[in-house]
Amino acid sequence: MIYKALAFAAMVASASAFAPAARTRASRAARMSLQDFLEAEPYWDQSTIPVNTYKTKSPFIGKVTSVKRIVGENATGETCHIVIDHQGKMPYWEGQSYGVIPPGTNPKNGKPHSVRLYSIASTRYGDDMTGNTGSLCVRRAVYWDPEMGAEDPAKKGICSNFLCDATPGTELTMTGPSGKVMLIPEENPETDLIMVATGTGIAPYRGFIRRLFTENTPAAAAYKGQAWLFLGVANSDSLLYDDEFSTVLKNYPENFKYDLALSREQTNAKGGKMYIQDKMEEYADEIFAKLDSGAHIYFCGLKGMMPGIQSMLESVAAKKKIDYEQWMKKLKGNKQWHVEVY
């Protein structure tokens, strides 16, 4: 009976991709069976979150089911969405990461390659809603040598290229899941979430947004807050999962906000390139008000984004005559400040 229920849930979820999007949670619930077989009891209890189920010395062997390029021709680099079959043996929660150990050895020391961590880009149910898969969002790391006038293969990212070149059936040596920093605080369903990403830092937020707005889970049924996504990329062709986020925005305009910083296509208030901190500054009053009211703010992406963001926040705080250090101390003390950068 369990397998029939899972098959039915997967079938309905698949069919919903071709049906008109639900306009309300009620209409969605009427169309879909409840997706709850991977929930804690109660659903918001984080005490049972799986952590480090598999480690470097005893890893899990997963299999790639699909690899898809998800950026346009004019994107600044190649980014792929990779779906991995874990057979339900490597469960995770939204906001966690998987570790991947690429094959081969490190030429510098002759030892196996070290683990590379990737934020998981799907909910605990996976893109197919069976609970047997997890997805990664991976940008192929390459190095352009100006003297050669070409990419230097000796300096390419070992693991990202391995993943982007994978084909269905490719085996992955995996560890994890790991991390508790980026979890959703679901106990209070009215909590506002501010999600800030650059590039593939979008991965955990795709899981957040699907859980709160796309899937028919207890968390989605209960959520009454507002989730606000800020995404910074170079240009429109570099946008990630834009169709999914735009659909959620259309269906839940009161509960979801979506703002973009396109550095090569937009200009900021000073006439310069529009970076993520510039887009956030446009809404500084609202962001500060939300945080003062208990909102949680998340940052995921390249660590280089943080100095600019923190400088902007400190500048805004000074204008508001707020003691920035004390303000930050309060946010961190209340566990409202979540950072996962690389």
Structure notes:
- The chain is an alpha/beta fold and 342 residues long.
- It folds into 2 domains: 50-178, Translation factors (Elongation Factor Tu (Ef-tu), domain 3, Beta Barrel), CATH 2.40.30; 193-341, Nucleotide-binding domain of ferredoxin-NADP reductase (FNR) module (Rossmann fold, 3-Layer(aba) Sandwich), CATH 3.40.50.80.
- The chain is 28% helix and 22% strand.
- The chain is built from 10 helices and 13 strands.
- Strands 4-3-8-1-2-5 form a 6-stranded antiparallel sheet, with helices on one face. A 5-stranded parallel sheet has the order 11-10-9-12-13, sandwiched between helices.
- The longest helix is centred in the first third of the chain and has 15 residues, at 2-16.
Short characterization:
Residues 1-17 form the signal peptide. This protein has ten helices and 13 strands.
CATH architecture of the largest domain: 3-Layer(aba) Sandwich
CATH topology of the largest domain: Rossmann fold
Number of helices: 10
- Tell me what portion of residues adopts beta-strand conformation: 15-25%
Unreliable residue stretches? 1-32
Specify the structural class: alpha/beta
Strand order of the largest sheet: 4-3-8-1-2-5
Q: Total number of β-strand segments?
A: 13
CATH class placement of the largest domain: Alpha Beta
Largest sheet: 6 strands, antiparallel
Q: How many whole angstroms does the radius of gyration measure? A: 20 Å
Signal peptide: 1-17
Cofactor: FAD
Protein name: ferredoxin--NADP(+) reductase
Keywords: FAD, Flavoprotein, NADP, Oxidoreductase, Signal
